[in-house]
Design goal:
By secondary structure, this protein is an all-alpha fold. The chain has one domain (about 10-95). Helices cover about 85% and strands about 0% of the residues. The chain has helices at about 10-30, 35-95. The radius of gyration is 29 Å and the shape is rod-shaped.
C-alpha cells in the first residue's frame, strides 16, 4: 500500500512537527501577556534549533561511522578475494606443471 512505505525518519519528522504545532497552539491560548508569550516562543524556537542541530550532528557522526565500517569491510573482502585468487592461480600452475 502507499502508506506502508513511510520510513522511521519520516514518522519522527511528523511527530516533531506535530509536537511543535501543539506547543505553538498551547502558547497562543495560554493566559500570558503578549511579550511573555513572544519571549517564550523565542526561547522554545531556540531550544528547537539547538535540539535539531545536535541531533543532526549525531546522525552525521553515526553515518560517518557506518561508512567507515563499510569501507573497512570492503577492503577486508577485497584482500580475501585477492588471496583466494592468488591461491587459485598457484593451484592451477601446480596442476598445469604436473606430468600427465
Amino acid at each position: 500500500m502507499a502508506g506502508d512505505d513511510v520510513g522511521g525518519g519520516s514518522k519522527f519528522a511528523y511527530f516533531v512537527a506535530g509536537l511543535g504545532f501543539g506547543a505553538l497552539l498551547a502558547l497562543l491560548f495560554a493566559p500570558k501577556s503578549g511579550q511573555e508569550t513572544r519571549d517564550l516562543i523565542g526561547a522554545k524556537a531556540s531550544e528547537g534549533r539547538s535540539y535539531v542541530t545536535s541531533k543532526s550532528r549525531e546522525v552525521r557522526q553515526q553515518a560517518e561511522q557506518i561508512v567507515d565500517k563499510a569501507k573497512d569491510l570492503v577492503a577486508q573482502q577485497k584482500e580475501q578475494l585477492s588471496a583466494a585468487l592468488e591461491a587459485g592461480k598457484q593451484a592451477y600452475q601446480s596442476e598445469k606443471s604436473k606430468p600427465q
